[in-house]
Specification:
The chain has 256 residues and is α/β, with parallel strands linked by helices. It has a single domain, classed as Rossmann fold. It contains 10 helices and 8 strands. Helix 1 crosses helix 4. The structure holds ligand PTJ. Ligand PTJ binds next to helix 2 and helix 4.
Length: 256
């Protein structure tokens, strides 16, 4: 149901994001569980103060450096990502020369085609992974996510996995791939298993990733590699949890 969101509503931005997801659901891009997943994300965003925290900025810069040194980077797109940030996905794919592949947890050919159409409307020219094009299998993965495109994720060296489930993150790293997750929950299995986890809302993280790619473009491979080789994901996640912890402790004191 649509309402006219007043510009001065204190939660206007959050309501606008919800509206995009609702619209995505009505158009058949977003899975019903995608709405629930968004709610979990919102709760963590609330705890973070709905801003890009310093460890997330560091993870974004590291992700930009990793994408620029990758040989065959692929961005995996699901329903929520397509509904929220299709334009930004295309921008990143162009600036980092990354392929785009549709990969769904709740797989249906109908939804894959709708997501592909949305991405093409945003300017994508070669969207992989739709229907029979997902001709290869990620070993030891039970979910529908195991079907991937042999030109894309199967042969990729770096995979960007926004709003992901832990099983596939683990399976991709077992295949020797580097993974860049975007997940507001620093405690999730995806966050723990990815090579780089950006603990930020995808609507903020991706535009910042584009800016960082542009900023690092002229650097040598050696310099770029140094950035991602020095990055410690476990330490970075710990900093995210500490920020939430400090914020809650301060708020609890203020409440007394
Ligand atoms: O479109 P499909 O079929 O591939 O399904 C997509 C969902 C998201 C339903 C599927 O991947 C799923 O069930 O994901 P999970 O296991 O619920 O994990 C989603 C994660 O994304 C959770 O840890 C959320 O906190 C996080 N999240 C939700 N919204 C955002 C987010 N992270 C960043 N930005 C968001 N806007």
């Amino acid at each position: 149901m649509r309402i006219n969101i007043p510009k001065d509503h204190p939660r206007a931005e959050s309501l606008r994001i919800r509206e995009k997801l609702e619209e995505g659901f009505e158009k058949g891009l977003v899975a019903s569980a995608g709405l629930i997943a968004h709610g979990r994300g919102e709760a963590f965003d609330y705890l973070l103060g709905e801003r890009t925290i310093p460890p997330a900025s560091q993870a974004i810069r590291t992700a930009a450096a990793m994408l620029l040194t990758a040989e065959n980077p692929v961005i995996s797109v699901n329903g929520n990502t397509a509904a929220l940030v299709a334009d930004e996905i295309v921008r990143i794919s162009k600036s980092a020369k990354a392929k785009i592949e549709v990969n769904l947890f709740y797989r249906s050919t109908e939804r894959e085609i709708k997501i592909k159409d949305r991405l093409e409307k945003a300017g994508a020219s070669n969207v992989l992974g739709v229907s029979r094009e997902a001709d290869a299998r990620i070993p030891e993965l039970g979910s529908e996510r195991c079907c991937v495109d042999s030109r894309g994720m199967y042969t990729a060296d770096v995979v960007v996995i926004p709003l992901e489930d832990g099983d596939r993150t683990e399976a991709l790293s077992k295949m020797g791939k580097k993974t860049i997750a975007v997940d507001l929950n620093p405690l999730s299995r995806t966050s723990q298993k990815a090579s780089i986890t950006i603990v930020d809302n995808i609507v903020r993280a991706l535009p910042t990733l584009t800016e960082n790619i542009k900023d690092l473009e002229g650097k040598s491979d050696l310099e770029l590699e140094r950035i991602w080789k020095e990055f410690d994901n476990t330490k970075n996640l710990k900093k995210c949890v500490e920020i939430i912890n400090k914020r809650l402790t301060r708020m609890a004191k203020e409440a007394n």
